[in-house]
Specification:
Layout lengths: L1 H22 L2 H30 L2
């Protein structure tokens, strides 16, 4: 479930970045890139937790 939420945050960030580009709004573009980075970090954390649980650590 965490991985799905992380992916959704990445997609939301992509949409925000694209909208910012279309509207020529640098703040919105930056916010979108930030959300994408947060989503990627959350996805990596979920993957690491899954691997640790699988390996019995």
């Amino acid at each position: 479930m965490r991985k799905a939420k992380a992916k959704a945050k990445q997609v939301k960030g992509m949409m925000k970045e694209t909208t910012g580009k279309a509207l020529d709004d640098p703040g919105m573009k930056a916010e979108g890139r930030g959300e994408q980075a947060q989503g990627k970090a959350q996805q990596e954390a979920a993957d690491a937790a899954r691997r640790a649980k699988r390996d019995g650590r």
